[in-house]
Design goal:
two-stranded antiparallel sheet
């Protein structure tokens, strides 16, 4: 499934976003797509690859300050 990661810039970020979306689905969030799978992990991967899961990279470095870039936030 990581061969088609949509607009995401790296496989690592794709995995992180899909994992966070999987946790949201397990917590009761409704799926954004109608798929054939009932597995939350597969549904999350399909949503991310389709570009339906919006995410924000927080902690981007600016010219004058250094910050932690290891954290992402997703919204649906």
């Amino acid at each position: 499934m990581t061969n088609n990661i949509g607009n995401i810039d790296s496989k690592f970020r794709y995995i992180l976003v899909a994992a966070k979306r999987t946790r949201q689905l397990q917590g009761g969030s409704p799926p954004l797509i109608k798929g054939t799978s009932r597995k939350f992990t597969r549904i999350a991967q399909q949503e991310v690859a389709s570009g339906l899961v919006k995410y924000e990279i927080i902690g981007q470095e600016s010219d004058s300050e250094e910050t932690d870039t290891s954290s992402d936030t997703i919204t649906h």
